[in-house]
Design goal:
This protein has helices at residues 8-14, 42-59, 64-80, 82-93, 102-118, 153-167, 180-191, 206-214, 227-237, 262-274, 294-306, 326-341, 374-377, 393-401, 416-423, 458-463, and strands at 23-26, 33-37, 39-40, 124-128, 133-140, 143-147, 170-174, 199-201, 203-204, 218-224, 243-247, 252-256, 284-290, 345-348, 364-367, 384-390, 405-406, 408-412, 430-433, 448-449, 452-453, 466-472. By secondary structure, it is of the alpha/beta class. Strands 14-15-16-13-12-18-19 form a seven-stranded mixed β-sheet, with helices on both faces. The protein has a six-stranded mixed β-sheet with strand order 8-7-6-10-11-21, sandwiched between helices. Helix 4 crosses helix 5, helix 5 (102-118) packs parallel to helix 6 (153-167) and helix 10 packs across helix 11 (294-306). The chain is globular and about 60 Å long.
């Protein structure tokens, strides 16, 4: 392993983020400039893909065990620079260092690399009956194009990188323009131990970004982001019949049953909604609570929320930070204003300081809201939770299922079997019991309806980065 940067400042220098001629990237806590990034054009994209295509031919020849070793070496490299990476992530994305935030995210990158490296991909015997012998194995696709989001820029990018490389593909990563430095730094560290050109990252202009989805030498697109953009990518990819994995927006519902132990699970319930300030696709975004527990749940969530400090991500005591950008701040603010105007009850929050630096929106809990209000039926993607009262469980299930999204859902109950019965009726790619958004690199994850296409994680996710090859005889 070559020498790696040991400080946040050295890391910025290593990725060329000190050149003020580039596009400035701001800290959403302070509005100060974190660093600068160079935006690449179509010619630079084409040359990058050509390098990836050439490198993939040799990378595909590398044995599975050697690819596993490379992924573990990349994990070692990230661990060696974990603190500078977390410092950069906190400054650029806004999330605090502590809690389930920046240091957690860097650690998750390591976990996903090691778990993906450990997956075994042996040929499968399909038929062996004495007359027919058929096997199936998975071969690399070629070059993968990965388009990442700004909410978990390092971790979600790793969801794209790890299986792509493990399968024998090369990958070209396009980070979000809001959080490119974190991804550039992450891939810089990984490339200190990986073969040349199998992992390349570049922030592209609009023309080059569109070209990623239509490029004839890119065989698969992995995208995490909005449903609207996902639809455009899927349409564009059809021209060259690219494979796609789309992890799109959700508006996850949680249903509390009348036997739920509120005191035992109140903090877990809180983090299900407010993980990363609610800026998580599979966060709890609307909560249905029975009449018998309604006020108790409202009070318990308020009590927990009041204990969670919000502030500059670099503050060691903070566990909640700002919204990442002004666009998202306005979306959240408009939805909450509309809820307040409708007569909904504000339990806490809903009073941002518009003159303060940064994109801070206070932790907000909204009760007694119309179940058809935009704050309920549209994804807010911020630190706001609407709490909807119900008296009929069938009605609550129907409300949970009525939207054209289906990423995650949750059921909260002291009776696991009863919870599983309700979970079986929910229309979502994943349903958690007494938790929400607790993803695991061993367990496939993906959405249904307009929340996505394909799965990630585990052996099933890895297979989607390959093409099945069947041998008869």
């Amino acid at each position: 392993m070559s020498a790696l940067p040991t400080t946040f400042e050295d890391l910025l220098e290593a990725i060329g983020a000190n050149d003020s001629a580039g596009t400035p990237i701001s800290n959403p806590s302070t509005d100060e400039t974190v660093g600068y990034v160079s935006v690449k054009n179509l010619d630079e994209l084409n040359s990058t893909v050509e390098r990836a295509k050439t490198a993939q031919k040799e990378w595909a020849k590398v044995s599975h065990s050697d690819r596993q070793d490379y992924l573990n070496k990349a994990a070692d490299a990230i661990e060696a620079v974990a603190e500078p990476l977390a410092q950069l992530l906190s400054r650029e994305q806004g999330k605090p260092l502590n809690g389930p935030n920046a240091r957690f995210e860097v650690g998750a990158c390591v976990a996903w690399l090691r778990t993906t490296a450990a997956l075994e991909l042996a040929p499968e015997v399909l038929v062996d009956d004495g007359q027919t012998y058929a096997t199936m194995e998975y071969r690399p696709l070629g070059v993968v194009g990965a388009i990442g989001p700004w909410n978990w820029p390092m971790m979600i990018t790793m969801w794209q990188i790890a299986p792509s490389l493990r399968m024998g593909n090369t990958i070209v990563v396009k980070p979000s323009p809001y959080t490119p430095l974190s991804v550039l730094a992450l891939t810089y560290v990984m490339n200190s131990v990986l073969p040349e050109h199998i992992l390349q990252t570049l922030l592209t202009d609009d023309e080059a970004t569109v070209a990623i989805t239509t490029h004839p030498d890119i065989r698969k697109i992995m995208f995490t982001g909005s449903t609207a953009t996902g639809k455009k990518i899927m349409a564009a990819a059809s021209g060259t019949v690219k494979r796609v994995t789309l992890e799109l927006g959700g508006n996850d519902a949680g249903i509390i049953l009348d036997d739920f132990d509120v005191k035992e699970h109140a903090e877990t319930l809180f983090w299900g909604a407010f993980l990363n300030n609610g800026q998580t696709c599979a966060a709890l975004k609307r909560l249905y609570v029975p009449d018998a527990l309604y006020e108790e749940v409202c009070q318990a969530l308020t009590d927990v929320a009041q204990k969670m400090p919000m502030g500059d991500g670099l503050g060691e005591n903070n566990v909640l930070g700002p919204l990442q950008n002004q666009m998202q701040f306005k979306i959240v603010d408009d939805l909450v204003k509309s809820a307040c105007d409708s007569g909904a009850r504000v339990l806490m929050g809903a009073n941002p300081d518009y003159d303060a630096p940064g994109n801070f929106y206070p932790t907000t809990l909204i009760a007694d809201i119309d179940p058809d209000h935009p704050l309920v039926v549209e994804e807010q993607f911020g630190p706001v939770l609407p709490i909807i009262r119900y008296s009929d469980l069938d009605w609550a299930i129907e409300e949970a299922n009525k939207l054209e999204v289906g990423l995650g859902s949750s059921v909260w109950s002291s009776d696991r079997q009863r919870a599983r019965e309700v979970a079986a009726r929910l229309e979502a790619g994943s349903t958690w019991i007494n938790n929400h958004g607790a993803i695991d690199p061993r367990v496939p994850f993906g959405g249904i309806k307009q929340s996505g296409f394909g799965v990630e994680f585990g052996l099933e996710g890895l297979k989607q980065l390959g093409v099945p090859h069947i041998i008869n005889g």
